[in-house]
Amino acid sequence: MSASPRVVIIGAGIVGTNIADELSSRGWTNVTVVEQGPLELAGGSTSHAPGLVFQNNGSRTMTEFATYTVNKLLSLSKDGQSCFNQVGGLELATTPERFADLKRKMGVMTSWGVESRIIDADECEKIYPLLNTGKLTGGREVLGGLLIPTDGLALAARAVQLLIERSSDRGVTFLGSTTVTGIAQEGGKVTGVETDNGLIPADIVVSCAGFWGRELGKLVGLEVPLLPLAHQYVVTTPLAELEGVNELPKGASKPILRYQDKDLYYREWGNRIGIGSYAHRPMPVDMSELPKVSAEEMSDHHMPSRLDFTLEDFLPAWEDSQDLLPPLRSAAIEDGFNGIFSFTPDGGPLIGEHPDLSGFWVAEAVWVTHSSGVAKAVAELLVEGRSRTDLHGTELTRFEKVQTSDAYVSETSQQNFVEIYDVLHPLQPKESPRDLRVSPFNVRQKELGAFFLESAGWERPHWFEANRGLLEELPAEWQAPERDSWAAMFHSPISAAEAWRTRTAVGLYDMTPLKRLEVVGPGAEALLHRLSTGNITKKPGAVTYCLLLEHDGGIRSDVTVARLEQEKFQLGVNSNVDFDYLRVEARKQSAADPSQWAHVSDITGSTCCIGLWGPLAREVIGKVSDDDLSNDGLKYFRTKEISVGGIPVTAMRLSYVGELGWELYTTAEYGLKLWDLLFEAGQEHGIVAAGRGAFNSMRLEKGYRLWGTDMNTEHDPYQSGLGFSVAKDKTGFVGAEALAVRKEEPASKVLRCLTIDDGTSVVLGKEPVYVAGDAAGYVTSAAYGFSIHKPIAYAWLPAALGVGDAVEIEYFGERIPATVTAEPLYDPAMERIRG
Questions:
Q1: Whole-model pTM?
Q2: Residue 1: pLDDT above 50?
Q3: Which of the residues are catalytic?
Q4: Per residue in 192-219, is it b (16+ CB within 10 Å) or e — as a string?
Q5: Contact 216, 195 (CB under 8 A)
């Protein structure tokens, strides 16, 4: 592709114009932006957005997007006025639970490098004098708030016009009142955009169509998992208390205010108050019923994204608003509408390239809050090949097939609307839909009283109530301390008993939700050797843990590669993103050299996996299999085909919990019988079915990393403690050159193991870590180590810290002393796992 390829951006809202600006600032000026509405008022979500930009988010990526948006819009100005009013943001708490959560959020903001502080009710009133800090309806009162001084209000419509002006000066073309009718393509690549005014040739097309994005995706056979939902917004009549306060008609001097206990937010509009409500019923939008508005008819009060106001839905919110802000009692609703926004199954944006149509990119479900940050990431992807911000939580292809269906997208997106301001625990599962994906063992797990949590649609047992009686047998040293109410949610002391039995006898684990791929063909070895850091060219029977890297050496995933036959490999990967990456690369390789074809398929649903681990695992499997599973018969990190009670099984000598045992794979129809055979054979040896609670504790005791939590694309193998996964003297793999340079450069941050000094305090992740009184890093994974009898936390910290150094972890506003500790904490000589 030439230095400046032909790019067509569909949509001239805050996202599309930002991408045009980011691309043209990098020298890509052969860009055309197509907008179905008039450029001066496109009529999408940007045209009516209230402009709140708040950086507070549990996702580091989303916070980075918001912070970049703040800084960019601050710098975007004309005639001395920027496109951002940095009035700050204030989140209120009117319940003890919310106030505690604000303290937790303050810790997360510290972890992500954003200034914030907790303030009491008196300071809340000083900052926002309209507040009622006395008794509210229901006996509530303002207990305090979280203040983020750098939050504020985006002048979105003005920003769009300035971005159009700046990009146009660089050579970008903007076409208003132009409707996209199709996407031209040839040979699996985009070649142009068809419009009602003719074809626009293109090498790259970026869909920034907002809530029209799902419809646009259908033009190229792409399921874009977003749902347009209406969100109520009103502007009041003037308030005497605000007369003369703001110079501009739509200006503001007070912070944006969020009353999340009632699903409400507020901003000043000159001497009026704008009120946004999520307190009403979800209102899915039927795209076929959108108002038809011509360019001549378009206005601030008449546009496709602005639906008729339903007063009855807003009246409870109006009463709550008058309760919180008493001056509103003398005001009325001057203007109200139901504005359309995009929601997704997990609340995140959708960024990435169509896996089956090269050159077609998506940047959808992006709010004004994150618009400039997303645009920067997309520009980096297109120009440089990767984003400097980790995007794994925003990848277009992160959802499984079932999660892109209309029914799933509709239900989960509506639930996200309902829960948008709720206090949610990190482990909080969906209430519905459930039982979408279950392993063949599910019926037995239910009989054993499994407590399930959900991930990627899978039901995953976290503990089994059938094991509660073991708590009476649990030795004193294995008794875990009681947890605080937050850490105790979605946790059971039964996990300690399950870990104990795994370490002393044997545990049976359902590993079916681990995504499994099969790679076959004469080019399978070449494909995996080129993409991975490990030496996967070994003879059949070898298993290799290795990494997939970005071109700059960052970790895009970690994988386990088992060579089953000369031209057949089985991979354990992290997500659907890995599947799409591998199959796209296989397609490219096959096209370049047909003799080196490789086919990648997802075999997760047609197979299942049991982890049989513990010092007595060999005794258990020996009762139902005549195959040689001794140390000589199947060495560590080797695989072979065996028979278990007549069932064909692929046994891999792996263990994510650090004990002797195997991952046992078979096809789904044999799964239940395999479970029954092993469970029955293990009864005399004390076998237990065990869940993720015990599993997570033991994997941290062994120092095993969890991709996406402990490391991601921003980290390289060496700073992540995974240098061993890079084969010595191997060159030519993706990211190899950059990695060689990074290896020689001292890392500023590394992943460290911490143990908590008091032996009882359990943190959950994302908490800030302080060194000598200064915030210096953040926690990734954490758990109570049942085997080592103390809490564990992994954290990104300055490389200068060494074993024995003291740090502090902030948890709900309190500092907890911890110590940098050598890893792994359990069986460092690997004697147990090697049997």
A1: 0.96
A2: no
A3: 231, 265, 558
A4: bbebeeeebebbbbbbbbbbbbbebbeb
A5: no
